[in-house]
Amino acid sequence: xxxxxxxxxxxxxxxxxxxxxxxxxxxxxxxVVAEHDRHIDLLERIVNQxxxxxxxxxxxxxxxxxxxxxxxxxxxxxxxxxxxxxxxxHLVATHDGGGRNILLIGHLDTVFxxxxxxxxxxxxxARATGPGIxxxxxxxxxxxxxxxxxxxxxxxxxxxxxxxxxxxxxxxGVPLDxxxxxxxxxxxxxxxxxxxxxxxxxxxxxxxxxxRRSAASWTLTTGGVTGHSSGVFNDTLGxxxxxxxxxxxxxxxxxxxxxxxxxxxxxxxxxxxxxxxxDGFRVQASGKTNIVAETAIARGDLRTLTPEQDAxxxxxxxxxxxxxxxxxxxxLVFGDDGYPPMAPTPGNLALLERLxxxxxxxxxxxxxxxxxxxxxxxxxxxxxxxxxxxGGLGIAGGLAHAEGExxxxxxxxxxxxxxxxxxxxxSLGE
Length: 430
Hints:
By secondary structure, this protein is an alpha+beta fold. It folds into 2 domains: 4-212 and 340-428, Zn peptidases (Aminopeptidase, 3-Layer(aba) Sandwich), CATH 3.40.630.10; 216-334, Alpha-Beta Plaits (2-Layer Sandwich), CATH 3.30.70.360. The protein has helices spanning 4-11, 22-34, 36-47, 56-70, 133-153, 176-179, 181-189, 240-255, 307-321, 346-362, 409-428; strands spanning 76-81, 89-96, 101-107, 122-124, 127-129, 160-166, 192-195, 200-202, 205-207, 216-224, 265-271, 274-276, 283-285, 295-302, 328-334, 389-390, 397-398, 406-408. Helix 10 (346-362) packs across helix 11. Its cofactor is Zn(2+). GO terms for molecular function: hydrolase activity; metal ion binding. It comes from Brevundimonas subvibrioides.
């Protein structure tokens, strides 16, 4: 709690031009502090509720716990069923008190399914570990804590807020256009979007997220004429599937590089035969040293910062694939499960400047934009083309997606205070 005093002193300097009165913002600050233990308890309860993406009942149960928090604040809460995509669904809560609409984005699911050994919240002082504790259950609690503080200060009443918590951020349902249809529509009618994934930190400094790269999958299949290896490279057998695969992947490595672009190869197999499973996660192959490979398969991802970079990279990849070695074939297919980029825009940067105005008034350090090459994709990418968006407003921590995922519980206070003040100011538009 060592930062409370400068926060309170900073707020005494607030002027009349703010979106909310200094008195209201002081109430926000003190309410978040007073309710800190309550929100740690809430975090523990929702972390201990397994909500791996494929645990549909667990995702819905987590949504019901959130519903119980938001309805008493005056939110109209509904559940959007996503059975047609093979997923549990999404929670959407609306509070129309007038003013500009602020869309708050997070997710209920985690990467830890019911068979994971990592299932339990454990606290050690200001540090806690647990499955999905930062990604994104800590972010969900930041949203709830911020809205409760706004209600206590009287600023929620006049605010227009939409909370959209997806149930399949970690493993989206298909078709993706159905899975993200409602989120995209919410973005189109919003004036601002705030995303509550993990806060970006480095060396004790905290950063704002004004950009995220995309995430798209691709599958490359090469074919060759099989036969005795004594004939490899000749006019009859040519080079075989593995040499063609090696040519293409090395071509990607040599010809694609540019800032903020990556293209990982995650799995690869080649031989006679070779095949990939229906989910696209496992490949297997067999062969002998004296047989020219008939088939090779590789799967990977593509991450870009802007739609223009994405189109440029895909076109270049396809051109490289098309330059076949003798007697080989190659087919590149991009998946339909991709996350679009959250490109850096002047509007996003302006939102960070608004957050930094809050930081100044709360006595907190200024936040610089975080390197987008070091952030993963998120649901904010689906709305960023339509609305100014700021990400990374969730809790601080580390080891996301890994056993031992942890958070700094003190950051729950800072992030909730920041969010509550920012939401109110943005909704009032002053």
